[in-house]
Design a protein that fits this description.
The chain has helices at residues 14-26, 67-75, 113-118, 124-131, 147-155, 157-172, 181-184, 186-195, 198-203, 208-215, 229-236, 278-282, 285-291, 334-337, 366-380, 405-416, 434-459, and strands at 6-10, 31-35, 47-50, 53-56, 62-63, 82-86, 89-94, 97-100, 218-224, 241-243, 248-252, 255-258, 263-265, 268-271, 295-306, 315-320, 328-333, 346-353, 388-399, 422-424. By secondary structure, it is an alpha/beta fold. Strand 1, helix 1 (14-26) and strand 2 form a beta-alpha-beta unit. The chain is globular and about 75 Å long. It binds flavin-adenine dinucleotide.
Amino acid sequence: MTAKQRIIIVGAGISGLAAAFYIKRHKPDVHVTVLEAADRIGGKVKTIYKDGFTIECGPEGYMARKKGLTDLIKAIGLGDQLVHSKSGGYSIYVNHRLRQMPKGAVMGVPTKLLPMVTTGLVSPWGKLRAAMDLLIPHVYQDRDLSVRTFFEKRLGKELVANMIEPLLSGIYNGDLSDMSLEETLPQFASIEKKHRSLILGMKTLRPPKQKEAVTKKTGAFVSLSGGLSALTEKLADYADEIRRNTSVSQINSGRVTLDDGTVLNADAILLAASPKQFGPLLNFPEAWALSNDKRSSTATVAFAFKKEDVEALDITGYVVSRKEQLHITACSFMDRKWPHLAPDGYAFVRTYVGTPEDQALVHQSDAAIAQAALADLRTISRIGTPLFSIVTRQIDNMPQYTVNHKQRVHAFENALSTIDGVFACGAMLHGVGLPDCTENARQTAEQAVHYLNTLEHAHS
Ligand SMILES: Cc1cc2nc3c(=O)[nH]c(=O)nc-3n(C[C@H](O)[C@H](O)[C@H](O)COP(=O)(O)OP(=O)(O)OC[C@H]3O[C@@H](n4cnc5c(N)ncnc54)[C@H](O)[C@@H]3O)c2cc1C
């Protein structure tokens, strides 16, 4: 009888744990060990349960249209926990006021004329400049460029500063000046390629079905009623063994070396650790090129309030223009978006601190971060005294997809493919959103299973 094949997964974030699930689904008889440096699993996915609140410290949900993750959730038996976000407007805090995003704007890019003409977000000159998009020749020429260069050339600096930048930096926590267009917003590159004008091209994008969806009461995101940690906990059940507090220092073909010098052998190894670990663990130039790329730090502050202590604005959140020079970059009224997160009569407000240009506050104490965030929130709307706050930091742990990221990933994957039985997935490679991570984990797990099957046949 031949010995059971073994695979080691490094990193118990959503990527590593989803990979464990997919490997077991395709090859139930392989022994899967997950090594995790921290004392808990989940990585950036972290739900804390306190006084009846379900506090999401990392991701809060994902785009409902990305069906792969929903299929995964159903496959592991959590389908009955799926909840849709409530729809509600998002505003932008700019020029010292909360202003509504004009109707029809997609990622800050206008698609309708009338709401743009009447919005106070951009000056008359800014609007005129944006309208020049209708005449301007192609900016994207099949070569990657920064998101800022692309949008400023098409729509002008003011619209970028007041509408696009606050939204995108809220989502990607990045600096538009070096953010890769091809990797972060490929859809805009293709629209421009096909229609030249973004404004005209975006109009054609919305299928009739999507128009209907916008008028419905549910938002575009889904999550789990028990908190997203339920997902990582459940996925972890598929691994044969999970070792916490086990940090890996080196990966070679068939061999993993731990920080304490212990060497573990395996038929295949799948790296799913944090972005900065690719270089040190794999130690080849293309891996270093990825992990030496820009990363940023951020902190989220979750505040619990009595409902009456939070001004009842008619929105589910807002983003803050960098021109305002506040510490916070975005704020979500989480209980309005996700009623399951707070008990009746209470409010849960979450705000983000830390931009690529201003990382200092993220390194200060929890109390200092919470105090600065609260002061900023109070500049914008009426907010009382919180019942408690929870600060969560990601230090140097947010990957930034800078210009030519795609080419670096391609070079990395080519180099990795020359090392027998070593695979990699994770937010560093093909998208930071949870659905992108799980899709990348699925594909990588399938490659690993194919490799193991080939090994098995060669030995039989
Ligand atoms: C505040 C915040 C909000 C977000 N909101 C959303 C959202 O709403 N929707 C969405 O889709 N996405 C969101 N994201 C993005 C998403 O959460 C992440 O991209 C995703 O969780 C990354 O998963 P991962 O498994 O690739 O990496 P990680 O979660 O970083 O996991 C990597 C794991 O590897 C471990 N590790 C590192 N080094 C070693 C080592 N040497 N040895 C062993 N283990 C190691 C780490 O401890 C960690 O557990 C958010 C992220 C943050 C931080």
